[in-house]
Amino acid sequence: MSAAANPLELQAATAVLVGTGALGAAFARALLERPQTDKLFILHRGEAPTLADPRVHCVAFDALRADTVANAARTVAGHCDRIHLLINTVGMLHSSCQRPEKRLADLQPDNLLRSLTLNAALLPLLAQAFSRALRHEEPAILASLSARVGSLEDNKLGGWYSYRAAKAAHNMLLLSLAREWRVSHRNTMLLALHPGTVRSRLSEPFISANYPNRVLAPRESADALLQVMAACRAADSGSFLDWRGEHIPW
């Protein structure tokens, strides 16, 4: 294993960033400000982000299609044989035709399945596709954005059936993967990360003037989460952490 205990301590690290929303864009800028970032692959849907940096490689994919996830991993493998940091920022709380359910009567099967696909099922697909690139003698992290509302113990209000269920499923998938990979990928940490309430299209409809919690700018959250990741060690694999580095109960 490398003398470094964390991929963010390496002198040259290859990163894969999945998603180009508010947090994805903030992570991209933060990683590119690090001279240690040797290559940054950005998996995106739709128009490619415009980042004038030779280290950036944009790869198109569709989070709703497993074949495009595998194709994206093959494209990345054509440029490098290992990655040190994979951050999944893809998530969906609402859309033009879907809102968080306030009561059981609002739950629609199609909306539940779409939420599970985007908020949970993408994680194991990424792990499968990038498994070989994450299995090496240097430290690596697979971090995936979760949400505090996915905590079973923290659910005091109910509602938001699809999103809560999907994030809880995401957390179980990540924890099971961490248990498996501690043998097969012993240098790779897996982390479920809650970014806080971030001002973005995802959260904007739910932030009122009297919103009780702190609202973070995307870059503030991304920087904080990178600090959390940098402080983690092998024993932390399988943890559910918030942007302050505090453990969230499953």
Task: Describe it.
With 250 residues, the chain is an alpha/beta fold. The protein has one domain (7-242): Rossmann fold (3-Layer(aba) Sandwich), CATH 3.40.50.720. It is 33% helix and 18% strand. It is built from 5 helices and 9 strands, in the order E-H-E-E-H-E-H-E-H-E-E-E-H-E. It has helices spanning 22-32, 66-77, 109-129, 161-184, 218-231, and strands at residues 13-18, 37-44, 56-60, 85-88, 140-145, 188-194, 197-198, 215-216, 239-242. The protein has a 7-stranded parallel beta sheet with strand order 3-2-1-4-5-6-9, sandwiched between helices. The chain has a two-stranded parallel sheet with strand order 7-8. Helix 1 crosses helix 5, helix 2 runs parallel beside helix 3 and helix 3 (109-129) runs parallel beside helix 4 (161-184). The two termini are 31 Å apart. The relative contact order is 0.16. The model has no long low-confidence stretch (mean pLDDT 93).
